[in-house]
Amino acid sequence: MRPLRTWSIIAFLLLDFSIVLPISAANSFVPDTISTKVYFVQGSSVLNPDYHNNATALDYVFQTYQQIIRTPGIELNELVVIPSSSASPEGNSALNQDLCMMRALNTAIYLTSKLKVFVDASSGDYEIDWKMLEEYLDNSTVYYRDKALDIIRNTPVWVIKNGQITDSRKRQLMNLYGGKAWEDMLRNVFYDMRYATIRITYTRYDTLPAPSGITCREPEPAEYTLPDTITIPSYRAEKRQSWMAVHNNMLLDMLIIPNVGVEFALGKHVSLGADWMYAWWKSDPTFYWRIYGGDAYMRWYPWADRKNRPLTGQHFGIYGGILTYDFELGVRGNMGERWSWFAGLEYGVSVPLARNLNLDLSIGAGYMGGEYKVYDYEEGYYVWKYTARRNWIGPTKADISLVWLLRGKTKYKPVDIIMTK
Question: Do 164 and 43 belong to one domain?
């Protein structure tokens, strides 16, 4: 009886295994992962839902989470915030490490409060995302592109000689073109590198046909489905920003003529501007120093792209203006009692002195016309001599100006963000 009993047990186990195996195979699982990024202000670890495109990213996370927990056949495995490679280069290493972890923790706390489920913050490598910076520069047309890429690709993060750090990749980038390339990256690149990643991992159970001879209960139809891609309208900061400049002509200052000018950039290559001066000094009976008037102009900066900021570099322009004056330094005086006018062509160059300060040198030549009176001071009286008309062809404008550059708010343009699994 013992051999028969043994074979019976073996047969029972084989039958049970043949039934369990197809049933287990009927449900296969496919792990999926989706992720999105939230961005932070420079030097801050506070999550601002209204900054950059954070509102869109957070809404995507909320919707995805709700779909996962409500959809039969889908199980949430992990909801975590990852600070890896989220440090932009402008801070030091210790500061970046603290900022990265605090950004991840604050994001996890925010999601926990909104979703009513614990969200963890994992550890990361806290390194500068050099790969992201390299990809951005490789696809850009900025004037420092090639040299910056050469530094990133061929300079170690730390240059060590005789056991001591003597140079670094970041230091060479900061010194590129006297710091101008670094200033541009601070304005236009690094804001995309201050982020934390929100990652959701879930398992989708797909029901396979039951093997013949075995009846399986059909799954209930899902109320929600997760598409492979989701397109969300959003906004992205443009590289171009509105600029204006305030001018002060130091040549007129030397002549004791207060003056001011403004210039507005219409894109990167064209600008409109206007200048005004006013001086009304007198010291009877022999000293008169009076002038007021102004001009308007249009300038063209043909090589502005190379400088990568408006209102900088060589420029050509046309101008026209009006003025009235009364000069009498000795005995004889000249008075333009009626408006005189002038117009011409100009050439100049605006040279950067600091981040928001330029020195503009320009000269203009053209025509100046108008009526003026000549008078003398005789025995305590101003005696009119004659009236003439001025017809001057030659230099009519000269500037050695300090230029304060004022940058406006960042402009945003609509884009579509495509989220994929």
Answer: yes
